[in-house]
Each structure stands twice: as C-alpha cells, then as structure tokens.
Backbone:
C-alpha cells in the first residue's frame, strides 16, 4: 500500500493517511479482511509520529472502515450486507501485500460496469439510442474495400482523415483548432492521463472542482499531485475562491468540466469561463477543459468553449466521442497548441504508439455525414424524455428533505440528502434491490461529502428508470422516517 505524504500541504498528516487508506478501501485496492500494517510499521515507513498514525486508524475505525483485534492486528472490516452464494476454494494471496504498488486510488472503475439490474451509476448511453446498425454497415463496407486496415498501424497522432473531420466538427462547436493540433486518444480518459503523465509529478498542485469527475481524480492522485478543490455553485467553479488558491499556491493545472458539469450538471457562463482563463494567464498555468456532453443540450446551446477564448495556448481541450456515438470504439480528441501539444504527442507515443486505426476509420464516414447531426438531435430528444421522467418521479416520490439540481443537458442528476445520510451505506441497501448509483464520496478529491449521489438517466430504458428511481425514493423515505421516529421517541 503506497501512501504519498506531502509535508508542506495544508492538510494534516493524519488526514492524509486517513484519506489515502480510505481511498484504497473504496477503490477495492485493499480487500475486505486484509490486514493493515501495525501503527509502528506504518509510522516508521512514512517517517511520522506514532500518534499521527494512531489518530488516522482511530478515525477509520470510528467510521466503520477498519477493526482492531487485540493481539492480532488491524483489518479492513467486512461488509455485512454483501451476500454471495459462491463457494470457492480458500486460497491465500497474502504474500502479494509485500509487493509495493503506487496506486493511491482507483474508485471510478468500481462504479463503471456493475452487475446490478438497474444501472444508474455511470454516464453511459443506452446502446439502443446509438447508431449501431449504420456503423456495422460502414465497418463491413470499409473492410470489404480496404481489408489491409486490419494489418496496418495508424499514425501516432491519429488518422489524418479523422483529424480533418474532427477539426471541422470542433470548429462548428466554436472550438478553434487545426488537424495538426488534434491528437486522437483512446477515449477522453486517456486524454486526462496523457496530460497528467506529461505535466504532473509528486507535489505539483492541481486545482479541481468539488465535486468533480471521479476518473480525473484517480488519474491526478495517481501522479502524486497535491489536489486543491474549489466548490461548485449553479454557475460552475467559484472564481472568487479559485483566485485565492491560485494566488497562494500557483497551480500547474486547473481541471474543469464547464459544460453540463459532471456530476452536478451546472453550466458555466461565458463571463466565468473568461475569468478562469485570465487567472490561468496571470500565473502561467494550464487549463484542462473536459467536454463530454456539450452536444446533449435540452433547451438551448451552451456557451462557447473556453478553448474559443484562448489565444495563448493555455487550454487543453478534451472531447470524448464514446458516449454519444460508439462506446466500443473508445475514441477521444485532444486539442492543444505549441510545445504543450508536442509534449502530449510524445506522451501518446510512449503510451501506445497510436490508437487503433480500425475504430478511427469506423466512425469517419458517420462524423462527416448529415447523419451525425440527425443522430444528435434524436439523442437529445430521447434523453430529455428520460430526464423529465426522473424529475417527475423525484417530485412525486422523494422526501421533502431531498433536493436536486435540474440539468439542462448531459446525462446526470445530482441529489443532495440530509447531511446525516451516508450514500455509501445507502448504496448497500439499493444493491439488495439490484439498483446502483454513484455515491457522492467518489466525486470529492479531498474532504468527502457523503450525503450526495449521482443518478444517470441515460442508460436504462424508461420502465427500469421508473422502477429504480421510485425504489431509491422509497428507501430514502423509510430511512428518514425511521430517524424522525427515533428522535421523537421518549428517552428514559
């Protein structure tokens, strides 16, 4: 278990140890019933006082994540609610704990593909809403005409024809770029990883929104970054707090999802986008603008990208195509300029020598045809219907103590519950009903808030959406009613 200690950070050493172990537990990197190092071993390993480790362990034990057994040691607590009918041969892999790793956290993967029947935990689009049949025909046609595609490597930067098509596509979205400044990635997640591995090292400061996209947290934490957070309001990242942090810490990167923010759905107005860019210019840092959902708007088009306001090369723009077009193709686009782009291209070469040519060619014709615009229009209509259904269910069935942000686009709804409800515990209850959601704790890089959850309405059909959201509302109502009765009962 690798714990990165940053002695100059504002966060206490006890909290750093606590959060690191908690991230390992929530990510599944520490399995249930696994033994933790003794407080003496860990204090020696990290070069901190015994009291510092003891306090971290006490906090974890108080919150129910670990348990200490006199004379035996400290162990990850087993989740009582999880049941299995499998009977497996007991094989010990305890020896593997002696092999050091450098993974501080990998939470998002746990919620991305789950076995639950009603899957509300990750932002994916129902395959029935995607142009599968058309792409199937295009792939067959392409391979019939050019079977050598299967035996060819593509360019490291990406297929030139696709880069030209994406340049036109992005320009229509007010994202100014050129084919030479576009890099094809294996999804936008790889784009985040390329930025991190190129520009972020241990102790470098990265500023992120709180809450934010869990997959980005995992990547930046994996590089040993010092992550500072700025709260999100209805207009996105709060610029007043961002300015104070930047003046004090001089971050290397500001990561933001300004359009249909993941997970809250907020849309950042142009004025605030301009202010963030001005701050970046003043301290000479990079802005990573992650744009997974801007085509999925329900009322009106969102403001132009931050990249459209950038004339000095501060913004690295990321656009994923997997969600809106073809999840199996895993295609993303990175747009940057100057030496920043050249270094990112070098990182791509070191990573995989280029994304698969077959998947790039598979979507090329669709991107350049009128069908792309028609598809997006139909997709917006279908997803708005599903969003409205979920909002209606929440209005009719959720307890009055629950509130939510109404998204004007994107794939998610962000719910806020009473502060005493822990959505990690709530998830255990909904899993019994074969329902999943994303607990808010996964979306916070540092100080976690456990009373939020994200519902994705884009993947399940309406029947399952209705069943899943109604069940969650009923469980919440029962939980709150039980608490109310407990508080009202006489005490003797």
Residues:
């Amino acid at each position: 278990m690798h714990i990165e200690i940053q002695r100059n950070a504002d966060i206490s050493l006890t909290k750093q140890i606590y959060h690191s172990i908690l991230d390992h537990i929530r990510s599944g990197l520490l399995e249930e019933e696994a033994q933790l190092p003794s407080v003496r071993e860990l204090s020696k390993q990290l070069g901190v006082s015994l009291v510092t480790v003891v306090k971290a362990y006490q906090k974890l034990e108080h919150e129910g994540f670990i348990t200490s057994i006199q004379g035996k040691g400290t162990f990850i607590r087993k989740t009582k609610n999880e049941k299995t009918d499998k009977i497996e041969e007991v094989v010990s892999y305890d020896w593997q704990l002696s092999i050091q790793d450098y993974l501080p956290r990998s939470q998002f993967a746990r919620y991305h593909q789950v076995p639950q029947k009603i899957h509300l935990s990750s932002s994916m689009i129902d395959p029935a809403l995607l142009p599968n049949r058309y792409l199937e025909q295009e792939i067959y046609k392409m391979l019939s005409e050019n079977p050598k595609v299967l035996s060819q490597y593509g360019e490291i930067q990406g297929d030139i024809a696709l880069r030209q098509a994406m340049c036109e596509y992005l320009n229509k979205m007010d994202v100014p770029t050129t084919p030479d400044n576009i890099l094809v990635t294996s999804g936008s997640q790889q784009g985040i990883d390329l930025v991190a591995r190129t520009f972020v090292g241990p102790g470098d400061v990265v500023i992120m929104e709180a809450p934010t996209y869990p997959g980005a947290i995992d990547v930046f934490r994996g590089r040993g970054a010092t992550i500072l957070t700025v709260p999100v309001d209805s207009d996105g990242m709060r610029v007043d707090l961002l300015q104070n942090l930047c003046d004090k810490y001089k971050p290397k990167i500001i990561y933001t999802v300004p359009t249909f923010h993941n997970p809250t759905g907020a849309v950042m107005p142009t004025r605030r986008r301009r202010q963030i860019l001005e701050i970046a210019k003043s301290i000479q840092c990079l802005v990573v603008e992650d744009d997974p959902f801007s085509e999925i708007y329900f009322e009106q088009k969102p403001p132009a990208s931050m990249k459209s306001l950038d004339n000095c090369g501060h913004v690295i723009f990321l656009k994923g195509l997997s969600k809106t077009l073809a999840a199996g193709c895993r295609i993303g686009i990175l747009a940057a300029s100057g030496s920043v782009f050249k270094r990112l291209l070098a990182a791509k070469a070191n990573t995989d020598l280029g994304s698969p040519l077959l998947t790039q060619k598979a979507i090329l014709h669709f991107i350049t045809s009128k069908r792309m615009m028609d598809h997006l229009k139909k997709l917006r209509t279908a997803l708005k219907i599903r969003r409205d259904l979920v909002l209606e269910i929440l209005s009719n069935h959720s307890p009055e103590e629950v509130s939510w942000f109404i998204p004007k686009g994107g794939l998610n709804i962000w719910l806020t519950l009473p502060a005493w409800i822990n959505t990690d515990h709530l998830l255990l209850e909904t899993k019994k009903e074969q329902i999943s959601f994303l607990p808010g704790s996964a979306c916070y890089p540092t100080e976690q808030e456990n009373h939020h959850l994200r519902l994705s309405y884009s993947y399940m059909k309406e029947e399952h959406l209705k069943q899943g959201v109604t069940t969650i509302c009923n469980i919440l109502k029962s939980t709150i009613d039980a608490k109310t009765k407990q508080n009202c009962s006489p005490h003797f």
